[in-house]
Amino acid sequence: MMLATVFFLITAPFVYSQTYKPPCSVTQGEFSFDFSSFEGKRFITQGKDPKGNEYVYHFAPCDTIADAGVECIMDPGGVITGMVIQRSQDDSCFVLGQFDSSITPSNWDLYKSSGVVHGATLSTDNGSPTSCSGGVVRTLDVNFVCGAEVTPPDNSWEVLNEQGCDYTINFPTKLACTKGQTPVAPHVNPNNNNNNKGPSFGTAVMIILGISILLYFGLGTIFNLSQGKTGMEAVPTYIFCIFTLASEGSVYFFTNLQSCIIPSNRSRNLVNGNEKFNSVHTPSNGNDISYNKQEYDEIGEDYVTDF
Question: What residues contact 21, with CB distance under 8 A and at least 6 apart?
């Protein structure tokens, strides 16, 4: 009896580890998400840590990466492989989270934004403690969010690491969509060379303007030819009136602006290269009459008598 008890205690953990399968699904109320079809699949993306260091992230949803070329065999903490592995070009390598027997239904929850369910979240706290402040383990939140495809292409999902050893993965998949939900367009990593951005607003306006001018001249010329016009007469010129009006308006505006800045009752004299304004006012019946200073001085000289 004693021998049987010892045998059970020795073999029970081994049997449990072989039979227990961590949940890869969550059901809460009316919402139910199952991601077990991801087992055996691998995904890759690129990103940076808060210090600007570039990394490649390997992700095996609901699984463990078994690849000697990816595993962190030199990890001082002894955490060699897991569900998410972060590697850099200088061969630094860290396991961010493990999908093992420590994962229970309590690790799963609904992913909500502004109170609306957009998928499910798997949270782990069993990553490698190597290079983490205080020797704490790395924590990971995998957000399975509603996407357009079942399995997203590489570099269309992102890993966020805003501080310390806390990581977040936003992974778009159609399996995370609720009934009637519109999938969000996938985010494309800026490090992906296949990311082609559309033209800017200013470029689009210039393109539309150019096409409009070409259509104006083209259709206008065809119309004028149909009216019997030939040569330069067939070329529509009405559009040039706009530029003429703009030019005349500019001249009118600046002429009036100049008259406001330099009133007509002031004269400008250059003294030693500097511009001065001179005006002379002589009261007459309670009204001010302005004279030009130069004219005033010439009048005054007529009344000078030599004694």
Answer: none
Identify the CATH assignment for 22-176 out of 2.70.130.10, 3.40.30.10, 3.30.300.10, 2.30.110.10.
2.70.130.10
- pLDDT of 202-252, one tens digit each? 777 778 877 877 877 677 778 777 877 777 777 776 666 666 766 777 777
- What residue ranges do the domains of the chain occupy? 22-176, 201-261, 267-302
| Cα 167 from Cα 50, distance rounded (Å) | 11
Cα of first residue to Cα of last residue in the chain, in angstroms, is 153
- CA–CA separation, 6 vs 119, rounded Å? 46
Output the pTM of the full model. 0.56
CA proximity to 56, closest of 79, 94, 88: 88
Find tokens 């595993």 and name the residue. 71
Residue among 20, 28, 186, 17 at smallest CA distance from 121? 28
Model pLDDT for residues 265-284, shown as the tens digit of each residue: 554 555 555 555 454 444 54
